[in-house]
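Dear colleague,

Thank you for sharing your sequence with our group. We've completed the structure prediction you requested, and as agreed, I am returning the results in plain text so they can be pasted directly into your records. Please verify that the sequence below matches your submission; if there's any discrepancy, let me know and we will rerun it promptly.
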Amino acid sequence: MRSGDPENAHQGGYYVEGVRHARSRGLILAWPGYGSWAVNGEFGNMCAMSLAAGKDTQTDCSINAQLEGKTYCFGDQAAMTEFMKAPKENLAKAQSYYSSKHPG
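Please find the predicted structure tokens below.
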């Protein structure tokens, strides 16, 4: 057992349940000396709102949302909020821009 191991921290308490919940929601959790659990989103982890606006912005996908069973990443909370105001329209714009700039 490692002292920084999230599976063994505060066994039985809300802390471990919080870690499990965060993992199930697709969040990246980093533990010093332990590693991280990365999320793989659509568009190579680029910000979906940025793509909808015609820009490439790489993210770590720590802010993400599920749409139609797929994970989409955002550069910040404001980008996700803006995207969710019209998700279908923004997704169509993002897909169009991404496919034109990143063929294949």
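Summary note from our side: Helices lie at 14-24, 48-52, 77-84, 87-101.

Kind regards,
the structure core
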